[in-house]
Amino acid sequence: MVQSGYFYNDQELEALLDFSGTELYNPSQNTKLVLLKNYNWNETVVISKPDMIRENELSYTNYNLLKFKGGNEFHHLNIKGIEYNVDNIVNIDFIDNMYHFLLAPNTDRTFDKYIFEPDINGRFKIDVNQRTDPATEADYSYVYFTLKMDIPLQTGDIFVWGALTNYEFSNENKMTYNFEEKAYECRLLLKQGYYDYQYVLIDNNKIDYTYIEGNHTQTDNDYTILVYYKDIRGNYDRLIGVSEISSNK
């Protein structure tokens, strides 16, 4: 069982592990929890010891460890169709046998009030209008991202980020500053579909998910809890349980 709560702009979790009916040896010492926020392995918490041990139950309630920043809802883009502009698509061109989708510019949301926007928490779905097999019939297209900012940052780099970049940071999804447009820009090659994305700052090798996007306790996030048991005989950590929860449910 997993529950969520709030403290300022943090989201706090607590977990109850019921191991009745199992044959686990010394589970309080040999089990650990790994918690992921929005399927992102770069934003995890690992808990190796329970806070309370009852008969057949381990309780994890240390809010100093079991907490994540709320962050903000993801931006989204819909490039399933080429017939007309939808959502935040402002222009579609066909150049050199490739479709080019220009997105409406985004802005720094650090000090904006929280606005609920339905999203899929960083993931994507390959899809294309009026086709029966999106996996093979969706085309690759160039998508242009723009983040308006009057002056470039003095230190650090900004990346377009989410499952669309495999939650990674590379030269392909690093943005460059255009002084004439007063904006950071990036172009990604994506297959047609529906995508979530955010802008993330990396400064001195430190990832900051809230520097551009802001931080709100109300944000709807998905949390995945993985339970591992150290198998003494096999000398490995065995995955024995998985649970998921939304912060707003």
Mean pLDDT: 91
The class by helix and strand makeup works out as: mainly beta
- The CATH class of the largest domain is Mainly Beta
Count of DSSP-assigned helices: 2
State the distance separating the first and last CA atoms: 13 Å
CATH architecture of the largest domain: Sandwich
Low-confidence stretches: none
Order of helices and strands: EEHEEEEEEEEEEHEEEEEEEE
Percent strand: over 45%
Main beta-sheet strand count, sense and barrel state: 6 strands, mixed
Estimate nothing, just give the exact number of structural domains: 2
Measured as a percent range, the helix fraction is under 10%
Q: How many beta-strand segments?
A: 20
**Shape assignment:** elongated
Whole-number radius of gyration?
21 Å
CATH structural fold name of the largest domain? Immunoglobulin-like
Q: If you had to describe this structure to a student in words, what would you say it looks like?
A:
The protein is mainly beta and 249 residues long. It has two domains: 2-70 and 219-246, Sandwich (Immunoglobulin-like), CATH 2.60.40; 75-208, Immunoglobulin-like. Helix content is 3%, strand content 49%. It is built from two helices and 20 strands. Strand 5 and strand 6 form a beta hairpin. The longest helix is centred in the N-terminal third of the chain and has 4 residues, at 27-30. The protein is elongated, with a radius of gyration of 21 Å.
